[in-house]
Write a structure and sequence with these properties.
The chain has about 325 residues and is mostly helical. The two termini are about 20 Å apart. It has helices at about 15-45, 50-60, 65-95, 100, 110-135, 145-165, 170-205, 205-220, 230-245, 250-270, 285-310. It is globular. Helix 1 runs antiparallel to helix 7 (about 170-205) and helix 7 packs across helix 8.
């Protein structure tokens, strides 16, 4: 693959720090205004009440019959902050060609996506070690206040997540797949890999620094200190998948698969189809960790070599490397 960090996009704003600040501000605007406005409009139309949205936010778990509405609100918030806002940023400050810039063709996309699934699944098994370790982290006594605050925040978020992921019908399960797997897969990869990672790459020209910085903010934005490390590693994996292929579809698909598999596993557990609780923070047996750890290393090396030799050559065969 040639010119991996050269960028085919010609932004109207060349200073990467200005781009970074603009992306952050526009995304915050999307989260605070665009998403809530869309959610308010939808809830108002459905319920016929202009105060229903406010009531839902003030007491989100008050009425199980409105759980689906709360899930829809989550979806609109994500749509506003992680999809509409970054697209506004892209088409106003970058003015490139969206599909051309982010979706470099592969000679065998089916094989690439199949390898992506295999890499992602093996990583999910290994990542349970880091999930268990991060869950048990104890901060120094001097930071006990911070630890208590972080635990309290995560407990409240977990309580809401458990409430939202009680799948009482196939229709609600499909809604959850849309909100938890499809929208984050597209939106978060667009903003963290497609935009943020490339802005960092423009700043220092070091792809590894860019990938890990984007992964850091990807993990931090979820506000889960006791799940920070496994999500950081997951973000880095998505970053390398994007960097090696130059195709944003690959990390989008990996992100979707990761979230969809988790939702599907939880649905199966709730329906009594399996006795494995996907919400537990306990690591899988060490035998599984070792086997899938070795498999992950083999697969990731093969993946990198495969996409390097099978990428379609174009006149401007370049990864989006520096917005």
């Amino acid at each position: 693959m040639k010119n991996e960090i050269e960028n085919p996009i010609s932004p109207s704003v060349t200073n990467p720090w200005v781009l970074l600040l603009a992306l952050v501000l526009i995304s915050i605007g999307g989260l605070l205004f665009i998403g809530p406005a869309l959610a308010w409009g939808f809830v108002t139309i459905v319920t016929g009440s202009t105060t229903a949205f406010q009531d839902l936010l003030l007491n989100p778990m008050g009425d199980p019959d409105t759980r689906w509405l709360l899930m829809v609100v989550q979806g609109f918030n994500h749509l506003g902050g992680f999809l509409i806002a970054p697209l506004i940023f892209y088409f106003t400050l970058v003015k490139g060609r969206f599909f051309h810039d982010f979706f470099s063709p592969q000679s065998n996309m089916f094989m690439v996506l199949l390898l992506t699934v295999m890499v992602s699944f093996s990583f999910m098994i290994v990542d349970t070690v880091f999930i268990e370790w991060n869950e048990s982290v104890k901060l120094p006594e001097s930071l006990s206040g911070l630890e208590q605050w972080a635990k309290s925040l995560e407990d409240s978020m977990k309580e809401l997540t458990v409430y939202l992921t009680k799948f009482d019908s196939p229709e609600y399960f499909l809604l959850a797949v849309l909100v938890i797997a499809v929208l984050p897969g597209i939106g978060e990869e667009l903003i963290f890999r497609g935009l943020l990672q490339n802005i960092f790459l423009r700043m220092n020209k070091n792809p590894h620094v860019a990938i890990w910085l984007a992964a850091f903010f990807f993990s931090a934005i979820h506000f889960q200190f006791f799940g920070f490390l496994p999500r950081l590693l997951l973000g880095a994996l998505f970053g390398y998948l994007y960097y090696w292929t130059g195709n944003l579809l690959v990390p989008i698909f990996a992100h979707f698969f990761n979230n969809f598999f988790s939702v599907l596993a939880l649905y199966a557990y709730q329906k009594g189809l399996t006795d494995i609780d996907p919400e537990t923070s306990e690591a899988l047996p060490m035998t599984y960790i070792i086997v899938f750890g070795v498999l992950f290393i083999v697969l990731i090396v093969y993946f990198k070599n495969y996409v390097s030799t099978n990428k379609v050559n174009r006149e401007d065969d370049r990864m989006v490397g520096s917005l």
